[in-house]
Specification:
The complex is a heterodimer of chains A (265) and B (97). Chain A is of the alpha+beta class. In chain A, 26% of the residues lie in helices and 37% in strands. Chain A has 6 helices and 16 strands. Chain A has helices at residues 20-29, 94-108, 139-144, 207-216, 225-241, 254-264, and strands at 2-7, 10-16, 33-34, 41-47, 61-65, 68-72, 77-81, 85-90, 114-124, 127-132, 151-153, 156-162, 165-169, 185-196, 201-205, 244-249. In chain A, β6 (68-72) and β7 (77-81) form a beta hairpin. In chain A, α4 runs antiparallel to α5 (225-241). Chain A is globular. Chain B is of the alpha+beta class and 97 residues long. Chain B is 39% helix and 29% strand. Chain B has 3 helices and 6 strands; from the N terminus they run ββββαβααβ. In chain B, the strands form 2 sheets. In chain B, strands 5-1-6 form a 3-stranded antiparallel β-sheet. In chain B, α2 (55-66) crosses α3 (70-86). The chains are: A alpha+beta (265), B alpha+beta (97).
């Protein structure tokens, strides 16, 4: 199979031979797959026949040098060129393949004016709202209360500046490794931080807080300084252009009335 | 801790990333993982710490901009720069570049 996996407009050419890996990728990432058009890089999948990945695996060891990336993990390894051709040797396991793709798009995002965020994204009134927070912050709860509002993801959302306008887009990376929803995007209205509270309220934040939210919730595939600097630059651009607010909420449907009302104000 | 004098020349740590947001410098020190924020006056100082001039020159400019006495400007400037040096955000150079 030769196909393009596109997340937030960042297109990756994926080459995988017939077999279980092909089935997994086609089945799991279907809404995000399409014809190869203008990929930023190309990845060839090779089955290392390790079988199932380890439960609760350790983090991958990622080293970069310019466009070149080496990834070493107990379940897989990869030699990539983020502007060219690369290869990943990986088992036919949906969780391991998902882990690899999260790493890959975490590396690609800041190179393309984007951030991959630990966040839930929802479209309401034609615009997207991104609610950032680590596990337990309330992202999934908020998503479950969204009713008719389309979800971008309940776990990872990509925000990206395209021709000077910020959008938020869905990713195939959902909580509990659930099968992703449709590929969607919408102009970004606001970035939110979440806080459980006895009542629901909205507290506008300044640009410094916006920057902080973006940095603290960005997927950082490696602690390397260049990656941190790249994420900072994109986060600073985001903070300059997009407003943020703290959503103190209690899990009732009324919280969405609050969010919609704040968007109008 | 190096001793500062009016002739001291300082330069921003080149390993940092920084940006001005709403008139305030936000500085990322990636090696340490810290985020620093300077108020507008501190930002005005930060922008001038490019290794091209001495503290005395910067103090003179600040004295004119903020209409404070030159020795007061220099005193406050040295206090701020000491903190920046302590945090590793600036380095002392030998001479203006």
């Amino acid at each position: 199979m030769r196909s393009a996996l596109t997340v937030g407009g960042i297109e990756v050419e994926v080459n995988v031979g017939r077999g279980r890996q092909e089935t997994i990728i086609a089945d799991r990432y279907g809404p995000f797959l399409g014809a190869v058009d203008d990929p930023v890089c190309c990845i060839t999948f090779v089955d290392n026949e390790k079988g199932r990945g380890l439960p609760n695996p350790p983090l991958a060891d990622v080293t970069t040098s310019g466009d070149k990336v080496l990834i070493e993990h107990v379940d897989f390894n990869a030699e990539l060129d983020l502007a060219g051709d690369g290869e990943v040797r990986i088992p036919a396991d949906q969780y391991v393949i998902d882990h690899f793709f999260r790493l890959l798009f975490g590396l690609l995002a800041p190179r393309h004016d984007a951030l991959l965020l630990h966040a839930c994204g929802v479209i309401t009134e034609g615009r997207s709202h991104v609610f950032a927070g680590q596990s337990g912050a309330g992202k999934s709860t908020l998503a479950s209360l969204a009713e008719h509002r389309p979800l971008l993801s309940d776990e990872h959302v990509i925000v990206r500046a395209i021709d000077g306008e910020w959008i938020a887009a869905s990713t195939p990376f959902w909580g509990s490794y659930e099968k992703p929803g449709m590929a969607r995007s919408a102009p970004l209205a606001r970035l939110w931080s979440l806080k459980h509270w006895p009542t629901s309220s909205v507290r506008p934040l300044d640009q410094f807080a916006t920057l902080r939210i973006a940095i603290e919730n960005s997927v950082l595939p490696s602690p390397e300084l260049e990656i941190k600097r790249a994420v900072f630059d994109v986060a600073a651009d985001l903070a300059s252009d997009i407003s943020s607010a703290e959503l103190r909420f209690t899990p009732t449907h009324h919280v969405w009335e609050q969010i919609d009302a704040s968007a109008v104000a | 801790m190096p001793v500062l004098s009016p002739e001291s020349v300082l330069v921003r740590n080149e390993r940092l990333a920084w940006r001005a947001l709403e008139g305030e410098a936000v500085i990322l020190f990636p090696e340490v993982g810290t985020l620093h924020r300077l108020n507008p006056t501190g930002t005005r100082v930060w922008e001038q710490l490019d290794g091209s001039c001495s503290l005395a020159t910067i103090a003179e400019r600040l004295s004119g901009e903020f209409r404070v006495k030159p020795d007061e400007a220099l005193h406050d400037l040295e206090a701020l720069v000491s903190e920046l040096l302590d945090a590793g955000l600036v380095d002392l150079t030998e001479s203006p570049s």
